[in-house]
Design goal:
By secondary structure, the protein is of the alpha+beta class. It has 14 helices and 29 strands. The strands form nine sheets. Strands 6, 9, 10, 11, 14 and 26 form a six-stranded antiparallel sheet that branches. A hairpin with a 2-residue loop joins strand 9 and strand 10. The longest helix has 15 residues. The chain is globular and about 100 Å long.
Length: 524
Amino acid sequence: HVYDLEVRNHHNYFAGGINVHNCSYHAMLQEVGNHHGEEIFKLKDSFVQYRHRKIKVYPAGPDKRVLRGRTRFMACLSADTLVSTSLGLVSIGTDLTGTKTHVGNKNFKILDWAETGTKKVYTVRLNNGLSIKATANHEMKTQRGWVRVDGLCADDSIQVSLGGKFPKKLQLSYLESYEPKFADIYRAVERLGTFELSDLQKIAARSVTPITSDLRKRGLISRHYYKGRTGAGGEARCYYKVSKSFNAEALLAESASDQSFTRRKCSFPSKMTPELAALLGYYVADGSYSKRAVEFYFATSIERRAEHFRKCFKAVFGVEPNRTEYRSKNDALMVRYAIGQNVMKEFLRYVGLDAVTSRDKEIPWSVLQAPRECASAFLAALYDCDGGVSKNYVWFATTSLKLGQQVQLLLQRFGILSDYKYKNELKSVRIREAYYQNLFASEIGFSTNELTVPAKRHRIDRLPDDKGFVYIPVTGKVFSGVEKVYDITVEDEDHGFTANGMVAHNSIDELGWFPNGAEAIKLV
């Protein structure tokens, strides 16, 4: 049995006191050349086989190609990891090839992305609340250089990257459509031809009798009775037949043209705007939009906040929301804005208001990928409702673990370092240092309240260096199960990228490049 290893850059190492050359790199090139010859250079985005692993062939310019990856045990990150890119904060489970990642005060192109299998992952936590799930062999940048996750110790501090390049705009491609809730019933009636009410009740969890009664009055279906058969209560059992003139799509088109005044007048933005971002901030903070919500509503006891919500709503949809007032349990006068039209609710679902309860709320995808001024408007509305200022720090509180972590990462893109604390049900994001508090006041603030920075300041001990980095101590790492994992290749000499606010190592290696043409095989 013989063995070899590969050394970066110099390709030599001392073995038994003698300086020897590493052979893995050249053996791979020779094996590929012998088996594939010049054909390898004619392939585009395809694979060659090497020692039961795949090597992908990439175009690397007009006169050369690159071999990358799959020759080592890959170190990777879980799909819920958010990478700071030129498109905003995007999951590493999305193909990021061609975008740029922000590391410190520089941007580097992402050359490649890959799903690298299902592996054991470990959660690494920092003392300011940041966390990341990675394989044991994934490397993180620490005060002593690149260190594998399984090699991190209590004395280590991981490099955290502040700042980020925001996208210039975010196009929204929502296609306005209106389809009645009974559309599926119309289509089922047409498909069945002959049916009983129970057949329709399997399709819709609502009463179908008003619909069949209306269709009978219009002569589109007819009711018949079974001879000698009874149903519930001893009544004669009936069935329905569909007339030849029944046309489900024509009926739906007729219904769509007979929309309410509000539905006909509303409009939808074609790109992300500060008003839409602020509207989403208000809904995430003090709104209700769960799965079974008949209406989406926002409620507040502060009139100026209610007025700002109304202005944002009208700017987004072009119509006024429905306003009602009521008294809360503590006798405060509450203002409540609600919408029940499906088209507006569907648009809000499209931009990221997922059907969740307060404990599972998160920042909508459209905000994570929004321009700078839109992300600022979202955070300002969020802090205006569920944030505040104490004598020591600027804070935001939530019952959602994911929302708090995402707020922390979005603040980092503005260059603001925060601490994430959680106790029982309540989680809070706290901005402690005066430097970051002033940055928050100038970049974000509160949407309807004037922000006064606390008079008593936390001592300044975590300011970024001239490259935009801060080192935060590790508090621990725990096994978190088995998950699908991913990794990217970055055009950075140090091979780093920003993942969940921390600097992580890319693990897809570049093995070598070859020019196109007849001389290629000779070079190999």
